[in-house]
Amino acid sequence: MTLPSAPAPGLFIALEGGDGAGKSTQAALLTEMLAAAGHTVVRTREPGGTPVGEKLRSLVLDHGQGEIDARCEALIFAAARAAHTVQVIVPAVARGEIVVSDRYIDSSIAYQGAGRGLGTGEVQQLNEWATEGLWPDLTVLLDVSPEDGRSRRTASDAAEDRLESEPDGFHADIRRAFLALAAAHPERYLVLDAGLPAADLAAAVRGRVLGVLAARTATAGTATGPTAIGPTATAGDTAGSP
Ligand code: TYD
C-alpha cells in the first residue's frame, strides 16, 4: 500500500500507555513503516529528546537522587517537555516531518496528576503552559493492566525505574486516567489492547495513521499544523477517579 506523502506542515504522533505496554516496539515499527514510505520521521521520547531533557530524565527516573516530591517531579517532566517541544517537535513539524514521540503530556496527567494525586486538571494546565498548548494530532494509547505491565517488565532484564517500581494501585490510577483522556477526545486517540500481538497492533496503528495522513492531504493548503488547542475538558481532578 502506498502512503500519501506528508504535506507541510507535518504530523505529531504520540504513543502512550502504562509501563510494559510495548510503546517502544510500536514506535519503532511505525517509524520504520513511515520511513519506508518516504516520510522523514523524527523518533523521539519523553522525558528526553534534547540534551537538557536527557539530563532531566536521569534526574527524575534514576534511583538514589535524593528526595523528589510530587510537585518537583511534575515540574521536572514539564521542563523536559518544554525543551522537547520548542527544540524538536515544533521545528520538525514545521519542516513537514512526522514526529513519533514515546510519551507526551498524557503521561504527566496520568502519572503525576492521577498517580501522584496532584490533580489531572492542574497538571494539564502546567503542561499546556510548558508547551504553549501543543497537543498531538494523534495519540495511540496502548492499554495495559497493572498486572500484565508488571509481568512484561519482569520478563525483560531492565531494572525498574522510580515510577515503574510503584505499587499496582498507582499503575491502576494511571490506567484509568489515560482511558479517561482518550474517552474525552476520541477524535484524536486510538486505544488498543496492549495484549494483542505486536503485528496486529502495528497494523491498527498503520491504518489510523494512514487515515490521518489522507485527511491531512485532503486539507493541504488549509492545514495549520499540529493541534494548537488542547482538550476543552480535563480527565477530572481527583486522583484515581478521572
Ligand atoms: P519510559 O520511557 O516509558 O520507560 P522505559 O525507559 O522503561 O521505556 O518512561 C519512563 C517513566 O517515566 C515511566 O515510568 C513513566 C514516567 N513518566 C512520568 O511519570 N511522567 C511523564 O510526564 C513522562 C513523560 C514519563
Draw up the topology in text.
Blueprint: E1 11-17, H1 23-36, E2 41-45, H2 51-61, H3 70-94, E3 98-102, H4 105-115, H5 120-131, E4 138-143, H6 146-155, H7 168-184, E5 189-193, H8 198-218
Parallel strand pairs: 1-3, 1-4, 2-3, 4-5
The structure holds thymidine-5'-diphosphate (TYD).
Question: In summary, what is this structure?
Answer:
With 242 residues, the protein is α/β, with parallel strands linked by helices. The protein has a single domain, classed as Rossmann fold (3-Layer(aba) Sandwich), CATH 3.40.50.
Key features?
single chain, 242 residues, alpha/beta, Rossmann fold, disordered C terminus
What's the pLDDT, averaged over the residues?
89
> What is the beta-strand fraction?
5-15%
Number of helices: 8
Ligands and ions found: thymidine-5'-diphosphate
Largest sheet: 5 strands, parallel
- How far is the N terminus from the C terminus? 39 Å
Notes on the protein architecture:
Helix content is 50%, strand content 12%. With 242 residues, the chain is of the alpha/beta class. It has one domain: Rossmann fold. Strands 2-3-1-4-5 form a 5-stranded parallel β-sheet, with helices on both faces. α3 packs antiparallel against α4, α3 crosses α5 (120-131) and α4 packs across α7 (168-184). The longest helix is centred in the middle third of the chain and has 25 residues, at 70-94. The model is unreliable at 1-7 and 223-242 (pLDDT under 50). The structure holds thymidine-5'-diphosphate.
